[in-house]
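User: Please predict structures.

Assistant: First:
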Amino acid sequence: FSRVSYDTMETTAGDGTWVDRVVWERESPSNTKKEEEERQELLTVVSWNVLAESYLTPRSHTHLPEDYQAVAFTPHERRRIVRRTLQHFQDILRVDVICLQELDEVLFDEVVSDGLSRQYKCVSTPTERRVDSCAIFYRHSKWQLQGPATIIQLD
């Protein structure tokens, strides 16, 4: 595939969420406009560091504005917001691939897997010796996993 166009757009939610949109087209030339349209695929990807709860403490985030602290340091409130944001990605933006970083077990079990499991399949990194992992959710009605590859980065 070769990149055809790239732009950044603000979502209609008005919550400051932005989405990079890349339109991909197959490299082989087409003979007609219809063939060209059939070859064009829109792939939407969201990458989000949800920040594992074990890393989110008042001591580690001393410059966080006060009005955000009540939400950020209250696990059930934070999970509610993460759940709502993921539903927005899934139902409103209809994102094809959702990549989550610093996903801890509690957030995965209580928020993510329940909300996304209907329309998405998941590939995640192992959590050996870590409290968090990375996960890639892809819309299984449009995409098929050809084979996972795990890359372990020691940080």
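Second:
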Amino acid sequence: VTANEPAPMLQLQGQRRGTMTLVPEQLAYAAGIIDGEGCISIGVSGLSSIRLCVGNTQRGLIDLLHQWFGGNICTKRKQRPGHKTYYVWEVSSGDAVTALTQVLPYLTIKVPQATLALAFQGTIGPRFKAVPPEVKLTREGMIARMHVLNKRGVA
């Protein structure tokens, strides 16, 4: 693989990803990546759930997060000449809870988003059960707060 070629896809078929026991240095490294390159959000289309993703042009970094925490990887092909291929690692729902719970003690920048996402996921009950109006109202407030936390630009 040359510097201009993307690294081959990491194939771990038949093996459960994200079940490794990580040492504090690995968790701190992952937290730094999430603080700098990551996004913690609440998805509201279909079933409500939290989402943690990291995008980067370095495939090895994305493969590492995938190996440590499981989830999915998608490839965004370069849109313009001179642009690199972009890779996105993503976990959602329970897998996002696991990852966020592990890295939370090491996060610096995205502590409010991680805490809010974990609280939101705590409002998710059994599937196919009616959501009480007060829980819906609480979730709506959490979603609005996450939008404010993730808003781009100058605060």
